[in-house]
Design a protein that fits this description.
elongated; six-stranded antiparallel β-sheet; mainly beta; five-stranded antiparallel β-sheet; Jelly Rolls
């Protein structure tokens, strides 16, 4: 009997030791890491900025010298509505509203393939006007003026005045020229420039041809002209 108890004792002791050993080798479950709560700062609503409208380039302030309407003999001098009174002599003549010295329009002359020339003109009868034209010590003086603008395809452009012994009804015929006036030409591409020429109206004048002319380096040259006017001599 004592041996049986001894065996039971030793076995019990072994099982208890084995139990402690297994308990020591079993990993202890880790405690869950608490979730870190990050508070987000609320984003304020974005304010939409109202941008100012783009600044428009103001039109240049352009003023003309006052003119006496009685002696402003050029008709439709500013191309305000159409191109009436002006005739195409060479090249192409149009009215444009994209380029002008004073609003709302100007004449546009394009050089032609025939010699790369552009010529436009207006014939004005002077028979009645000459009788009432003011006299000076040297005769009946007159000034012709215009504003011209040219592009890079123009070699030169100017204002030409031809006084005729015949009237405008025979414009297609070769009139007898009794006098001419010329302005200094614009050379190459130029912004709006005032060209003027002054002289004496010949006594036997019956009409005058007011001519815008220019030559180009090709058939695409453009001459813009506006505010073609006549003035009496300055007092």
């Amino acid at each position: 009997m004592p041996r049986i108890y001894s065996m039971i004792y030793h076995r019990a002791t072994f099982l208890i030791a084995l139990g402690f050993l297994l308990a020591a080798c079993t990993p202890t479950p880790e405690a869950p890491i608490p979730e870190t709560i990050v508070e987000k700062t609320p984003i304020p609503p974005q304010v939409t900025k109202t941008l100012p409208p783009p600044t428009e380039t103001p039109e240049p302030v352009r003023t003309l010298l006052p003119v006496d309407a009685t002696y402003q003999i050029v008709q439709n001098s500013s191309f305000n509505a159409d191109k009436r009174n002006w005739s195409q002599r060479s090249g192409k003549l149009n009215r444009t509203t994209s380029q002008y010295y004073t609003a709302p329009g100007a004449g546009m002359l394009i050089t032609s393939e025939a010699g790369n020339l552009g010529v436009a003109g207006q014939c004005i009868d002077l028979q009645e006007k000459i009788m009432e034209w003011p006299n000076t010590d040297i005769g009946k003086e007159i000034t012709f003026a215009t504003y011209l603008k040219t592009d890079e395809n123009i070699e030169e452009a100017n204002l030409l005045i031809i006084f005729h012994q015949g009237d405008c009804k025979h414009e297609d015929q070769l009139h007898v020229q009794v006098g001419t006036l010329n302005t200094t030409p614009l050379i190459g591409a130029q912004d709006w420039t005032l060209l003027s020429t002054s002289g004496i109206i010949p006594d036997d004048t019956k009409s005058v041809d007011v001519i815008i002319r220019g030559s180009g380096v090709n058939n695409e040259g453009k001459i813009y002209f506006d505010d073609v006017r006549t003035y009496l001599p300055a007092p």
